[in-house]
Amino acid sequence: MDKALQTMINNMPEKTGKDLDEWTQILAKENFDKHSVAVKYLKTEHGVTHGFANTIVTLSRESNEPIADLLADQYIGKESLKPIYRKLITIIGKFGDDITISPKKTSVSLIRKNQFALIKPATKSRIDLGLKLKGIDAQGRLEDSGPFGAMCTHRIQLRTLDDIDDEVTNWLSQAYEKSV
Fold first, then answer.
1. C-alpha distances in Å from residue 109, one per residue of 48, 152, 158
2. Average pLDDT taken over every residue of the chain
3. Start and end of every DUF5655 domain (predicted)?
């Protein structure tokens, strides 16, 4: 994804009051036929600037799947990993009420002011927890980012609920704290 577009998506909750998934759900309920009509609706009814309105409409039309289905689809054939996902979300929810959980096609982004973590069911037996921890060296279970590239600086591989221990919670908390 283009860096400028990703920045716009990351800034969307602060600038518009909702994240992309929330806007997509609003547009899905309205079911507009024309791009321009949907843009006008966001501008007039919700006070969204033209740039954000255009981006929201464009990206919502690219996603033909309902948002709720994105998460369900990630775990098809990987159902045994869902409890790991749920435990991570429960832990993260305790950090604060300023977190946006944003499902994508193959992962879930966790965003405060900036993305601080990513949950990806990588295989049928493993979730990769990507973390943004700039300035921290890989150590122990905290590996280099691997497949995440620039989205995250590190990852931790999780195979069982027991893998989510105090160390993982601490790394998640640090990533959350650094994301302001």
1. 23, 10, 17
2. 86
3. 73-177
